[in-house]
Design goal:
By secondary structure, the chain is mostly beta strands. The protein has three helices and 22 strands. The chain is elongated, with a radius of gyration of 24 Å.
Length: about 270
């Protein structure tokens, strides 16, 4: 009989999670508050009990950034969360902008102001409030983390290194890629759910030539050259021998940064 007791507890827990009916405002055993539910009361969405913090878009949509099974809400879910919870003083929401997972205009994804209910946008790199959501039925996984851990840096080039046209490299968190396009333009693009965004975050704006190559010269200058080795774009970072760049890094927020041997940021593209 004792051997059957743990199994019975697990079974009852699963039935409570997956078979019970819920309504708006109920606390769900998966770790949140019900804000969207279907006619049967057994399927819907829950909001995390606390904000995930002020995050950039890349931080908010990174894989498992909100915790196992939790994600940033789209526009529809964000509006339901505002209407069914925030307006009823449920969930402890702040009268600020909350991020949506949906893209808005170029570098400005959608957001909803929980003080006014007005749909707005928030720039990719703005630190904007986020509240995670999860679909139920679900497993009893822990409440989402308050903020994601920052991955390590992604070194693209060391002094003396080069990359040819067509090369494509990612930041350590996978939120951005650096591309040397066939037309010679060097660009950084945001990634959303593994897909490249249409609009770049930054470009060198030097284009119209073939056989491009990105080089970090031993003198510290980052350059893009054409097939005849003519410089088409450069960082002009070869003037100070005491702060000579030795590596190029694509940071997790999409910035390209040149670092000296002492770890000092010598140049950035923004």
């Amino acid at each position: 009989m004792r051997k059957l007791l743990p199994f019975a507890i697990v079974l009852l827990s699963a039935l409570a999670t997956n078979g019970q009916k819920y309504k708006i405002g109920d606390t769900h055993p998966c770790g949140g508050i019900v804000f969207s539910v279907d006619a049967t009361g057994t399927k819907g969405f829950i909001a995390a009990s606390k904000d995930a913090g002020h995050l950039t878009y890349a931080e908010a949509v990174a894989p498992n950034a909100m915790g196992q099974g939790w994600k940033l809400p789209n526009n529809k879910l964000l509006k339901e969360m505002y209407t069914n919870l925030a307006k009823k003083k449920l969930g402890g929401f702040k009268p600020e902008l909350y991020r949506s997972s949906e893209s808005g205009y170029a570098s400005y994804p959608w957001a909803l102001h929980f003080g006014t209910g007005k749909e707005e946008t928030s720039a990719l790199n703005n630190k904007t409030l986020c509240r995670a959501v999860k679909e139920f039925p679900c497993n009893n996984t822990p409440t989402p983390k308050p903020a994601p851990q920052q991955p390590k840096q992604s070194v693209l080039l060391n002094a003396g290194g080069s990359l040819n046209a067509g090369a494509q490299l990612k930041s350590a968190n996978g939120a951005f890629i650096l591309k040397i396009q066939d037309d010679g333009n060097l660009c950084v693009y945001p990634m959303t759910n593994g897909q490249q965004s249409i609009m770049p975050k930054w470009c060198s704006n030097a284009s119209g030539f073939k056989n491009a190559k990105l080089q970090l010269k031993v003198d510290g200058n980052l350059v893009v050259v054409d097939g005849s080795n003519t410089i088409k774009w450069q960082s002009n970072t070869n003037k100070d021998a005491n702060n000579k760049p030795v590596k190029l890094v694509l940071e997790n927020d999409g910035r390209l940064v040149l670092y000296s041997g002492t770890g000092k940021a010598v140049w950035t593209n923004k």
